[in-house]
Design a protein that fits this description.
single chain, mainly alpha, 7 helices
Length: about 150
C-alpha cells in the first residue's frame, strides 16, 4: 500500500499503529454488524480493505494498479464459484475441490498491501455465512477456512 498515511507518522511509528489498529479491527469485526453480509464480491473486498486501513491510508480500499476493471468479472467468478460449491457441498464428494478454489482466492494480489488481512476477514465472513445458512459439512468447511485464516499474516 502506498505509504500515503493520513497521520503523518514516520515509517516505524506507522507500522506499529497499523498493527495495533488493524489487529483490533480484525478482532472486533462481525460480518452482520460491519457489512450486513452483503454479496461477497470484489466490491465487498474493497470495503473490507477500506475498513481495515481507512484510518491510516488515503488509498485504503483501492485495488492494486495491476488489477484492471476487466479483471473484476474473473475475480467475482472465482468468489461465486466457491460460494456455489459451498451451497451444494452435500453433492461434492471431496472437500479438496473447494480447498483448491479457496487457494486461488488466496493467491490473488488484489491490493498493493494488506491482502492477507483483508482475506482473513473475507473468510471470517464466509465462515459466518456457513453458520447462518446451515451449510452441510459446516464443521469441515470451518476447519478448512480456519486453517487458511491462521496461515495469513
Amino acid at each position: 500500500m502506498e505509504k500515503n498515511n493520513k497521520l503523518g507518522l514516520n515509517f516505524d511509528d506507522l507500522q506499529r499503529m497499523e498493527e495495533t489498529i488493524v489487529d483490533f479491527k480484525i478482532q472486533a469485526f462481525h460480518p452482520y454488524i460491519t457489512f450486513n453480509l452483503e454479496s461477497l464480491d470484489i466490491e465487498y473486498l474493497k470495503r473490507l480493505h477500506a475498513y481495515l486501513f481507512g484510518d491510516l491510508y488515503e488509498d485504503a480500499g483501492t485495488l492494486s494498479p495491476y488489477i484492471k476493471e476487466s479483471d473484476y468479472p474473473v475475480i467475482n467468478d472465482k468468489i461465486k464459484k466457491v460460494e456455489d460449491m459451498i451451497q451444494y457441498i452435500e453433492y461434492v464428494d471431496d472437500i479438496e475441490v473447494i480447498k483448491d478454489e479457496i487457494e486461488d482466492i488466496i493467491d490473488m494480489q488484489i491490493f498493493h498491501d494488506g491482502n492477507n488481512r483483508t482475506r482473513k476477514l473475507f473468510f471470517k465472513t464466509m465462515i459466518e455465512g456457513f453458520r447462518h445458512h446451515n451449510i452441510k459439512k459446516y464443521d469441515e468447511l470451518t476447519e478448512l477456512l480456519s486453517k487458511k485464516v491462521r496461515g495469513l499474516k
